[in-house]
Design goal:
Elements lengths: L10 E5 L4 H12 L3 E8 L12 H15 L2 E6 L1 H17 L6 H20 L4 E3 L5 E5 L2 E5 L17 H5 L1 E2 L7 H10 L21 H6 L7 E5 L5 E5 L32 E7 L4 E6 L7 E12 L10 E5 L7 E9 L2 E11 L6 E6 L2 E10 L1
Helix pairs in contact: 1-2, 1-6, 3-4
C-alpha cells in the first residue's frame, strides 16, 4: 500500500459517519498536514424517528469527533439524490424478483458522486472516507486495491468507481487492521473508539427487513413448492421478500423431505428458484443441494475501473458476495454489455441482482450486476 500523501497546503473533505473508521481517517489526514473538513451526509428522511435510524445520534458523535480533532463540519442532505439514484432502483429490482445491493449503488452514486461534487464545490483537493480499501496510481491509471485487513476489506462495495472518482479519493485506512483503528481512536481520546459497527443496509439499519419492504411492495401470496417433486409445501407472502439461498422465514420447517430428494428428512429448506410468471417459490432441502450451486453466471451493467474490459479467457478471482474468498474464474465472453464468467468450482447461491466483482491479485478490476446463471 502506498503511504498517505503529505497534505500541507491542501484541503480534504472527509465523509464522517459517526463511527470509528471515518473518525480515524480524519485523524490520520490531519496528522499528515491536510486541512480537514468533515461532512455528514443525510441520505434518508422517510422515517428518521430514532427507533431504527441512528442518524441523530450519529450526528452527535460526528460533532464530538470534530470538536476533539479541531475541525469544521458541514451537514449535507442528499436524500433526494438517494431516492432517485439508489432507492428507486432498489425497489425496481425487488419488484422484478432480484436481490439488489444498494450499498454498491450508494457508493458510486452518492458517496463518490454527489458527495464528491459537493466537496469540490467547497474547494477541496480530495475527498476521503473510512472505507477499508486502497487506491494507487500505476502508469497513469488509478487502481482500486484490497485493504490490508482481509476481514474488513470493502473493495467489493467500491467496484463501480471510475477513474475520476478514484483520482480524487483517499482511503487512509488502507493499511490498517480494525483493531489498530480502534486503538488509534482510543489513544486520541475519541469517544467512538469502542462504538459498535453499523450493520444492515444503510437506510434500513437493523429494522425487520420484510416489514420495511412490505411498505413499498404489497404482499402477493403464492405457493411454495419443492423443486425436486413439485409438492405443495406452504404459502409465501410475495416473491420479492425472498432471496436465493434463504433459510429463515419460510415457515415450512416441519415438512419432511420427499422421495429422491437426496437429503435427510429433517434438513433445513432453502430457496432455490423463483417462478415470477406463476408466482411460485421453489425450495430444496439441505445447504449442499446441487440446485443451490452455479458453475457460471452472466453479468450486466458492467463497470470497469480502468475504463476498458479485462481480457477474456484469462484467470481472475471473483466475488459474488461480501466477505467471500476470491473464486478462481475465467471470463468466457464480453460483449453487448454482458460478460459471462465460468468458475473453477461451483459457487453457492449466486443471486440475480447482487454484484459480481472481479479481481487480479490485490487489484479490483470492476464488475457487474448478476443477471443469472
Amino acid at each position: 500500500m502506498t503511504a498517505l500523501e503529505d497534505g500541507r497546503g491542501k484541503t480534504v473533505v472527509v465523509g464522517l459517519s459517526g463511527g470509528v473508521d471515518s473518525a480515524v481517517a480524519a485523524l490520520l489526514l490531519k496528522q499528515r498536514g491536510w486541512r480537514v473538513i468533515g461532512l455528514f451526509m443525510k441520505n434518508w428522511e422517510d422515517d428518521d424517528d430514532g427507533e431504527y435510524c441512528s442518524s441523530r445520534q450519529d450526528l452527535i458523535d460526528v460533532m464530538s469527533v470534530a470538536d476533539a480533532l479541531g475541525i469544521d463540519v458541514e451537514v449535507a442532505n442528499f436524500a433526494r439524490e438517494y431516492r432517485e439514484r439508489v432507492f428507486s432502483i432498489f425497489l425496481e429490482e425487488y419488484r422484478a424478483g432480484r436481490t439488489p445491493n444498494p450499498d454498491v449503488l450508494c457508493n458510486s452514486e452518492i458517496k463518490f458522486s454527489a458527495f464528491l461534487d459537493h466537496a469540490l464545490a467547497l474547494g477541496a483537493d480530495r475527498i476521503a472516507t473510512g472505507h477499508y480499501a486502497g487506491v494507487r496510481e500505476s502508469d497513469g491509471r488509478f487502481q482500486l486495491l484490497k485493504a490490508e485487513d482481509g476481514v474488513k476489506d470493502q473493495s467489493y462495495f467500491l467496484h463501480r468507481l471510475d477513474q475520476r472518482q478514484l483520482s480524487q479519493t483517499l482511503f487512509p485506512l488502507a493499511g490498517l487492521l480494525k483493531r489498530e483503528t480502534r486503538r488509534m481512536a482510543g489513544e486520541a481520546g475519541l469517544h467512538v473508539a469502542l462504538k459498535k459497527d453499523s450493520t444492515g443496509i444503510c437506510f434500513i439499519g437493523e429494522r425487520p427487513f420484510k416489514e420495511f419492504l412490505m411498505r413499498y411492495l404489497p404482499p402477493q401470496k403464492g405457493e411454495i413448492r419443492g423443486l425436486d417433486d413439485d409438492r405443495l409445501l406452504g404459502e409465501h407472502d410475495g416473491l420479492a421478500y425472498h432471496t436465493l439461498g434463504q433459510r429463515q422465514g419460510l415457515r415450512i420447517g416441519g415438512v419432511r423431505g420427499g422421495k429422491g430428494s437426496g437429503t435427510g428428512e429433517h434438513e433445513a429448506w432453502y430457496v432455490a428458484k423463483k417462478d415470477m410468471a406463476r408466482n411460485i417459490l421453489y425450495v430444496v432441502q439441505g445447504r449442499e443441494h446441487p440446485a443451490l450451486f452455479s458453475e457460471e453466471l452472466a453479468a450486466g451493467r458492467l463497470s470497469w475501473i480502468a475504463g476498458e474490459a479485462p481480457r477474456a479467457h484469462w484467470v481472475y478471482g471473483a466475488r459474488t458476495r461480501y466477505r467471500q474468498a476470491d473464486a478462481p474464474c475465467v471470463i468466457e465472453r464480453i460483449g453487448e454489455g454482458i460478460c459471462r464468467i465460468r468458475f473453477a468450482a461451483p459457487q453457492w447461491a449466486v443471486t440475480p441482482g447482487q454484484s459480481a466483482a472481479l479481481y487480479e491479485g490485490r487489484v479490483c478490476l470492476g464488475g457487474g450486476v448478476i443477471l443469472g446463471p
